[in-house]
Every structure is written in structure tokens, then in C-alpha cells.
Amino acid sequence: MLFPPEDIFKNGTMSRPEPFLTAPNLLTLSRVPLAALVWFRPSDPVYLISLMVAAGTTDVLDGWLERRALRREGRSEDSAPATGMWLDPVCDKLFAFSVIAAVIVTRRPPVYLILLLVAREIIQTLVTLTWKLAPAVRVRLRPEFQASLTGKAATVAQFFTIAAILTAHPWQVPLAVVTGALGVTAIVLYILRSWKAAALEPRKLI
């Protein structure tokens, strides 16, 4: 890199890059080995639900530690490190995919339940492919990696639905419907947020 990015300069001096191995990021990364642990006992409902509780706990704690650190430094939540903004949803997805795959392999739920469970991921993949392949769409959307409350709610609903499937609970269908609805809503809000970010971004002169 010949020239450092503009955002590492503050008041004419070079600022130190945000550290990667912070306590919040380490908690976030702990969901990666948890995703691997799923496959040690993929057919055990108690074991899988315990892992989901552990992953959910790390998700709550990493956000709390990040906000606490920002308050201690006198910074707003808008100035949160960029690394955590993309790392958190990536680790969330990795763990969720692992659990969902284990449920599909061991429980073989109906296809419609699977589609409701992963509706958000399916639509998100289609949106991402469209953004990658269509220049006209790429100009109008600017990806925003920050996790949203709706996205978090969809993930929580996913876990409740998975728990219901694992325990053959009669609420598994209503929970799957709620999961699908929250997932679609999260994607719509994500697209709107990306569109607004692109609209606010200054156009480059060629």
C-alpha cells in the first residue's frame, strides 16, 4: 500500500489501527469453535440447545463489552470498530449454519420448515449475487455490515425454532413462520439501509 487510507488520519496525524484481538472480538470468535462442536453430538437435543445458549451468551456479552469500552473512551456507538461490525454477523451465520445443517441431517424436517428457517439466508444470497453481477445495482447499494436488531431477533427466532424441532414441540411451525417473517423483514431493512448509504455517498467524477 503506497498511501494509507484516509480514515486512519486524525487531525493530520496517523492514528493507530483498531486492535483485532480485543475481548469483544474474542468472544465473537468463540462461536467458530462452538460451530465445530455441534458435530460431536449432532443428534443430542440437550447438547445442541446448550451450545445455542452458549453462543447466545457470547453474542450478548461481546456487544455489552464493546459498548462499555466505547463509553469508557467517551465515544459514541457510531464509532464502534469496523472489525466487530462485520465479524459479529459472520460468526453468527457460521454458527447458525452449522446448527441448521445438523438439524437437517439428523431430524429431516419438512422442506417448508427448512425454507422458513433459512428464508433470510436464501434471499440474502440472491441479493448479494445480484449486487455482484449487476453494475446498476452495485451503484445503488452500498453494503452495510453492521448487525441490526431485526437481524438479531431473526437469529433468536431461528434458535427457538431449532429447539422446537429438536424437541418435537408443537410450536415449531408457528416459530418457523415468525423466523421467516423476521428474516425477510431484516433483509428488506438491510436493502433500504444500503440504498440510503449509497445515496448519501458522494459520486466520483470520472
List low-confidence stretches: 1-15
Structural shape:
globular
Number of helices: 9
How many β-strand runs? Answer: 2
Largest sheet: 2 strands, antiparallel
Class per helix and strand makeup:
mainly alpha
Radius of gyration: 19 Å
Arrangement of strands in the largest sheet: 1-2
The average pLDDT value, as a whole number, equals 81
Percentage of β-strand residues: under 5%
Q: What distance separates the N and C termini? A: 23 Å
Give the H and E element order.
Answer: EEHHHHHHHHH
What percentage of residues falls in helices of 4 or more residues?
A: 55-70%
Description:
With 206 residues, the chain is mainly α. The chain is 69% helix and 2% strand. It contains nine helices and two strands. It has helices spanning 23-29, 31-37, 45-72, 82-107, 111-117, 119-133, 135-140, 149-166, 172-200, and strands at 9-10, 13-14. It has a two-stranded antiparallel ribbon with strand order 1-2. Helix 8 runs antiparallel to helix 9. The two termini are 23 Å apart.
In short:
This protein is mostly helical and 206 residues long. It has helices spanning 23-29, 31-37, 45-72, 82-107, 111-117, 119-133, 135-140, 149-166, 172-200, and strands spanning 9-10, 13-14.
Task: Give me some keywords for this one.
single chain; 206 residues; two-stranded antiparallel ribbon; mainly alpha
Secondary-structure blueprint of this entry?
Elements: E1 9-10, E2 13-14, H1 23-29, H2 31-37, H3 45-72, H4 82-107, H5 111-117, H6 119-133, H7 135-140, H8 149-166, H9 172-200
Antiparallel strand pairs: 1-2
Helix pairs in contact: 1-3, 1-4, 2-3, 2-4, 3-4, 3-8, 4-8, 5-9, 6-9, 8-9
